[in-house]
Specification:
The complex is a heterodimer of chains A (438) and B (474). By secondary structure, chain A is of the alpha+beta class. Chain A has helices spanning 2-8, 62-70, 79-88, 112-127, 133-150, 154-167, 180-184, 188-198, 214-226, 275-287, 293-300, 332-349, 353-365, 374-386, 393-402, 406-416, 430-435; strands at 21-24, 30-35, 41-48, 73-74, 77-78, 92-97, 102-109, 205-210, 248-253, 258-268, 308-311, 319-328, 423-428. Chain A has 2 domains: 21-226, 2-Layer Sandwich (Cytochrome Bc1 Complex, Chain A, domain 1), CATH 3.30.830; 248-435, Metalloenzyme, LuxS/M16 peptidase-like (Cytochrome Bc1 Complex, Chain A, domain 1). In chain A, the strands form 3 sheets. Chain A has a 6-stranded mixed β-sheet with strand order 1-2-8-3-7-6, with helices on both faces. In chain A, strands 9-13-10-12-11 form a 5-stranded mixed β-sheet, sandwiched between helices. In chain A, strands 4-5 form a two-stranded antiparallel sheet. In chain A, β4 and β5 form a beta hairpin. Chain B has helices at residues 19-30, 83-90, 102-109, 134-147, 152-171, 174-186, 200-204, 208-218, 234-245, 298-310, 316-324, 357-374, 378-395, 399-411, 419-427, 431-440; strands at 41-45, 51-56, 62-69, 113-118, 123-130, 224-230, 268-275, 280-287, 328-334, 343-351, 447-455. Classes of the chains: A alpha+beta (438), B alpha+beta (474).
Chain lengths: 438, 474
């Protein structure tokens, strides 16, 4: 039939990623650029190695608060002027923050006048923050209000405790937004010093995609990093995340209708020989939505949970492999048992051939969906840039996935994420603790 | 503010694959602020009444396919609230030819993503896949439209899942509890008063027969619209849709009783006491929804009013209440004109520590009163126009987002290609019109106030206090 043929002709071929252009600015910032002309939009992100892993227990929240404050006043511009300049041209500015990275992403129309104003505002925000004292007090209060609100919620309580246990003293174990006590003590001198130390040009990663020529992109990148601090040499690498040498478990009492459960262990990093076996294995185990073992065993077979999943968190150092779910509080014991059994079986025996084939087919086949918007491509550029991944990372990704074997998956999980040594946190009823097997 | 004379047109050369897209790019850059040229929406209706709506977007070799059933929680009755959403779950639990869960597995193996969502006005099922897999998506949707298999065992399990979802999203979320009570107070008669997930007691009493009745009532091709956005050609999509859906017979739909909310005749207050650190405040006023894209003006004026209050960080609520006066840690305003049912203009806010809910409520009322008295400025009006145009352009970066926009318009009985007209009409709103709606709709007699009063958790359960570590192995 003609109609079927019309679709069949377009069978998925090997998909290349978008062509990525890469250079360094005069001051050492790395720039990654994709020219994309079919929408009159420009997306730019600038990131720094200024995530929460730069905090200490005494300064927890400093990195996050510094990033947050950048948009609330630059030298010569009040916070209101900053927000008006962006709103007047329809530009959107959004912070992004995790353990490793801190930065801002700007979305603007690509017409010269609009983007000029938007980019000038971004440059001011990054390069010349004012940290006005009165505004800082206000923002500290807002952050603390959010933290105290979170401290009542079972999911936030559980996630916080899980991070503490699984990262065992490593900076990744600190809460990203900080703690009420430590945030309250931060001063504008702390923030200014943090900015001067970490928001430096040689550390900056600029990603751009949009309606621009290369030479325009070069000029923009230079402007964005021009007034940044100079930095003081290469940053010390983050410490390694220690392995859990024994299982650890905590029950936190909470009256919520649902118990919240977290299980896991370190983990995987961005540049890691086990990256793809763990990625494929995680998809099969709990990353693949309805098609995962956890979904099948916990949700579909037993109706115990609406949301049960597992997740890898690749960072500079080993981010946690996490299994998470919620269930009616009296079902916590049963849910924990099912999750443990499912995980242990997977680690011991690995995936079936059918599961492996399904995972490969999905991850490779769905890869074009990761490249179908400028916004998504921008994030790929940011990750490639920040972690110094090869420029053909996107092209090689499907091939790397297709090459993973069942034996590699089993082997990687057994070596890296043993089911014998997990951190387990249950937020729920104290009586549930007795139902929780060791 | 950019004076018109300073606007520069980007002199890009036409090297893009789609000259039409580039021309529209130039059109935006050179003619500011103007509604951007949009790709055409192609429409076709099958003989059985099913609508097929296609927007071609050749930026990437993928397609978003979204099936809209015009049935949502507003079509439910007391005693069976939540059935629309339960049936949405059951649509993944097997047909005459597919085992439970097999639909999602099939989509995943074909390199696709799938999901579904239930709203007040609609239930939608969508996939994102490589363009070559659109026939597969259609085959699967046609199969479950006609051949869903409901079994007691699957139903019992899935109902438990839905109850967990309600616990996760509502029972353990104090602000969601407030929203639920707030809507049930603002609406006394209209079915917008019931939660989409359903009251817990109705879920506990729900039967397989309820789900089956719902399915038979509403899941007919003449109650469905397929929206496809992506790297396809409309003619091919129409032909493929005919192939998969054409043989499904239409059915007479149940009578939809006209439901309306009688005009509110006095201020209403609702209170929820639940564990929280800070209070939370909701204020809602009944306002018109959009019924005629071209002739209505009040919905557009209300949209501009919402944008003037909360379109961005530069808008009044954040500027005045959060930044300058520090009465609130956050404040927002929302109004969605595209509904099958009536409209509600909602303002929300969280007071800053040390400031009372009463003071915050008074301040929010004063914000609207100030606009009623003095109107918004020409600069504010211009800013909302800029925002509307920019948002429309940015929306083109998402195929799923475009499909959603088309589907929502069509589902509400509006022209599905109406987005461009909406942007045009938004730019025609005047400061006088904004002032007029601010005067007309925001009297206390039309107001519902919902307040979340914080209850402390027992001290023992606060994070960082005395945990109960059991069976720790060190």
């Amino acid at each position: 039939m003609l109609a079927a043929a019309a679709f069949a002709l377009a069978a998925p071929a090997a998909l290349g990623g978008p062509p990525i252009q890469h250079w360094q600015t005069a001051s050492g910032a790395r720039v990654y650029f994709v020219e994309s002309r079919n929408l009159p939009i420009l997306d730019v992100s600038v990131q720094f190695p200024a995530g929460s892993s730069r905090d200490t227990p005494a300064t927890s929240g400093l990195a996050g608060l510094t990033l947050r404050m950048l948009r609330f006043g630059a030298q010569g511009l009040t916070e209101e002027q900053i927000s008006l300049r962006l709103a007047d041209v329809g530009a959107q500015l959004a912070p992004s923050f995790d353990y490793d990275r801190a930065g801002y992403a700007l979305r603007t129309l690509s017409g010269a006048a609009q983007r000029e104003q938007a980019l000038a505002t971004l440059a001011a925000v990054l390069q010349r923050p004012g940290f006005p004292a009165a505004v800082l007090e206000r923002e500290k209060a807002r952050v603390i209000a959010g933290l105290r609100e979170a401290d009542l919620k079972p999911d936030a309580i559980g996630a916080r405790e899980f991070a503490r246990l699984v990262y065992a003293g490593h900076p990744y174990g600190l809460r990203e937004s900080g703690e009420p006590r430590t945030v309250a003590q931060l001063t504008r001198e702390d923030l200014a010093a943090f900015h001067a130390r970490f928001f430096a040009a040689p550390y900056a990663v600029v990603a751009m995609i949009g309606d621009l020529e290369r030479r325009e992109a070069e000029a923009i990148a230079e402007r964005l990093v021009a007034g940044l601090p100079k930095g003081s040499g290469p940053l010390a690498p983050l410490p390694q995340v220690p392995r859990l040498d024994a299982p650890v478990q905590r029950v936190i009492v909470h009256p919520a209708a649902q118990a919240h459960l977290y299980l896991g262990a370190p983990g995987v990093r961005r540049v890691d020989p086990d990256y793809f076996p763990l990625l494929v294995g995680n998809y099969i185990l709990g990353g693949g939505g309805f098609n995962s073992r956890f979904s099948e065993q916990v949700r579909q077979k037993r109706g115990l949970s609406y949301s049960v999943y597992s997740r890898l968190a690749p960072y500079e150092q080993d981010g946690a492999f996490t299994i998470a779910l919620q269930t009616r509080r009296d079902q916590a014991g049963e849910a924990l048992r099912v999750v443990r059994e499912t995980f242990a079986d997977f680690v011991a025996n690995g995936p079936s051939a059918e599961e492996l084939e399904g995972a490969r087919q999905h991850i490779v086949g769905a890869f074009p969906l990761r490249l179908d918007s400028n916004r998504e491509i921008l994030e790929h550029l940011a990750v490639i840039g920040f972690y110094r991944l090869p420029l053909d990372w996107l092209e090689r990704y499907p091939q790397s996935v297709a090459a993973v074997t069942a034996a590699q998956v089993r082997d990687a999980f057994q070596r890296r994420i043993s089911s014998e040594r997990l951190a387990v946190v249950v937020v729920g009823a104290p009586s549930d603790a007795s139902a929780i097997p060791p | 503010m950019i004076p018109f004379s300073d606007r520069v047109c980007s002199a890009a050369t036409a090297t893009s694959p789609s000259r039409l897209a580039l021309r529209s790019a130039l059109a935006v850059a050179c003619a500011w602020p103007a509604a951007p040229a949009a790709a055409e929406l192609h429409r076709h209706r099958l003989d059985n009444g099913m609508e097929i709506l296609v927007k071609e977007d050749h930026r990437a070799p993928v397609v978003a396919s979204m099936l809209w059933y015009r049935a949502g929680s507003m079509d439910e009755v007391n005693g069976s609230t939540g059935v629309a959403h339960v049936l949405e779950h059951m649509m993944f639990r097997g047909t005459r030819t597919l085992a439970p869960g097999e639909l999602s597995k099939t989509v995943a193996r074909a390199g696709g993503r799938d999901n579904a969502s239930t709203g007040r006005d609609y239930t939608i099922y969508f996939q994102q896949l490589h363009r070559s897999q659109l026939p597969l998506a259609m085959r699967l949707e046609a199969d479950r439209m006609a051949n869903l298999m409901l079994t007691e065992a699957e139903f019992a399990r899935e109902l438990r899942v839905v109850m967990e979802e309600r616990r996760l999203r509502t029972e353990d979320q104090p602000r969601s509890l407030l929203y639920e009570t707030f809507f049930a107070t603002a609406y006394q008669a209209h079915p917008y008063r019931t939660p989409i997930i359903g009251w817990m007691r109705d879920l506990e009493n729900m039967t397989l027969a309820d789900a089956h009745t719902w399915y038979r009532a509403w899941y007919a091709p003449n109650n469905a619209a397929l929206v496809v956005v992506g790297d396809v050609h409309a003619a091919d999509v129409f032909a493929e849709a005919q192939r998969w859906f054409g043989a499904i017979a239409p059915r007479a739909l149940p009578e939809r009783k006209a439901q309306s909310e009688a005009p509110q005749r006095g201020l209403r207050r609702a209170v929820v006491n639940a564990p929280a650190e800070l209070p939370y405040l909701l204020m809602g006023w009944h306002v018109p929804a959009l019924r005629d894209l071209e002739r209505d003006w009040e919905p557009y004026a209300l949209w501009v009013l919402a944008a003037a209050l909360d379109g961005s960080d530069a808008s009044r609520l954040t500027r005045d209440l959060v930044r300058e006066r520090r009465l609130a840690v956050s404040a927002g305003a929302g109004y969605d004109p595209v509904n099958r049912g009536p409209g509600l203009f909602v303002v929300s806010a969280t007071p800053a520590a040390g400031h009372s809910v009463e003071a915050l409520e008074a301040a929010l009322r004063a914000q609207i009163a100030a606009i009623a008295e003095h109107g918004i400025t020409a600069e504010e009006l211009e800013r909302t126009r800029v925002q509307a145009v920019a948002a429309q352009v940015y929306g083109r970066d998402s195929m799923l987002g475009q499909a959603r926009q088309i589907g929502r318009l069509h589902n509400a009985g509006l022209p599905p290609d109406g987005a461009a007209m909406q942007v045009r009409r938004l730019q025609e709103v005047t400061v006088q019109q904004v002032q007029a709606v601010a005067r007309k709709y925001f009297a206390d007699d039309n107001l519902t106030v919902g307040t979340l009063w914080p209850q402390p958790l027992a001290a023992a359960v606060r994070a960082g206090a005395s945990d109960v570590p059991l069976r720790e192995h060190h």
